[in-house]
Design a protein that fits this description.
The protein has 160 residues and is mainly α. The protein has one domain. 74% of the residues lie in helices and 0% in strands. The chain has seven helices and no strands. Helix 2 runs antiparallel to helix 4, helix 2 crosses helix 6 and helix 5 packs antiparallel against helix 6. It is globular, with a radius of gyration of 22 Å. The termini are far apart.
């Protein structure tokens, strides 16, 4: 008979394997996770800009009749939206000014959710989740933010 301290529990090998996998996943650097988040959010807003620019008159009509953002003239809202949608994706891809960009896009997402497409909250909450990670943790080491921060600091930039 085997002493109790040496007995093998049937699930212990599986449990050990699961724990090793979880430990490995927890060691994935933020930089590796932030890059696809930046690219995913950039793609969403870039595609929206391209749709507006493909038929600017239709886009203006949407802002006049459907979107109706309060306090902003429809034409101004359209120009503002497409300007944000053209510039912020480029900045996200480069990892430049990532936190301010994430804040701007969170604001835009909130406006879209509250005033334009309230029924699309499942999509908007996904955008917001990605943007919150970028706002709180930054772009990571694979970014211009990191390089700039590292250049201005004598110590390594750990969280950009």
């Amino acid at each position: 008979m085997m002493p109790e301290s040496q007995s093998v529990h049937p699930g212990s090998k599986l449990t050990d394997r699961i724990l090793r996998i979880v430990a490995w996943l927890e060691r994935v650097p933020h930089s590796v996770l932030a890059l696809p988040l930046r690219l995913a959010v950039a793609t969403v807003f870039w595609n929206s800009a391209m749709t507006k620019l493909a038929d600017w008159n239709a886009a203006l009509q949407l802002f006049r009749e459907d979107y109706r953002v309060p306090l902003l003239a429809p034409e101004f809202a359209a120009y503002l939206a497409v300007s944000i949608e053209l510039t912020t994706p480029v900045l996200l891809v480069l990892g430049l000014a990532t936190r301010p960009v994430a804040l701007v896009l969170l604001g835009m997402t909130t406006v879209i959710e509250v005033f334009v497409y309230a029924q699309a909250w499942p999509t908007h909450i996904q955008w917001a989740a990605m943007l919150l990670v970028l706002l709180c943790r930054g772009a990571g080491k694979l970014s211009l933010d990191y390089l700039i921060c590292r250049g201005f600091s004598s110590r390594p930039a750990s969280r950009v």
